[in-house]
Write a structure and sequence with these properties.
This protein has a six-stranded antiparallel β-sheet, covered by helices on one side. The chain starts with 12 loop residues before the first strand and ends in a 6-residue tail after the last helix. A hairpin with a 3-residue loop joins strand 4 and strand 5. It has one domain: Aspartate Aminotransferase, domain 1 (Alpha-Beta Complex), CATH 3.90.1150.200. It is built from three helices and six strands. With 131 residues, the chain is α+β, with helices and mostly antiparallel strands.
Length: 131
């Protein structure tokens, strides 16, 4: 089932299985982009912890909290870096939260994997967000 904006409705769960269920339920072009993001995180943070919270995949490190999440919007995927203000360069999209920054992926745009990998490695090395 898809929620508003085409975001998959996936039950809360820990581990890779709920994240893979989310990726499989992503609509259209977003599924390919989501799988690329997931693989990019795995390649750059081999000890990553995964979960689905609030109908979104979350990525973190044991004992450090969450460093990244993403969510399907109507026309793009919103990638959240919870300590984005500490990244260099700072991701381009502001948040209401003073620490969080976003990167948006739009249909037809080939996102810069090298830049995302750079942000992912930096974010994973910082203390993460703990709800």
């Amino acid at each position: 089932m898809l929620l508003s904006g085409g975001n998959p409705q996936i039950p809360k769960g820990d581990g890779d299985a709920p994240v893979q269920a989310y990726l499989a339920a992503m609509p259209g072009w977003k599924q390919h982009a989501g799988r690329r993001l997931d693989a990019l995180v795995e390649r750059n943070v081999p000890d990553v912890n995964k979960a689905v919270r609030w109908n979104s995949p979350f990525y973190g490190r044991a004992g450090q909290g969450w460093f990244l999440s993403f969510h399907c919007m109507t026309r793009y995927i919103k990638v959240a870096f919870f300590r984005g203000m500490s990244l260099d360069p700072v991701p381009p999209v502001e948040s209401k939260d003073k620490d969080t920054r976003y990167f948006h992926i739009h249909e037809g745009e080939d996102f810069d994997e090298a830049l995302l990998a750079h942000w992912i490695r930096q974010a994973a090395a910082l203390p993460g967000w703990k709800p």
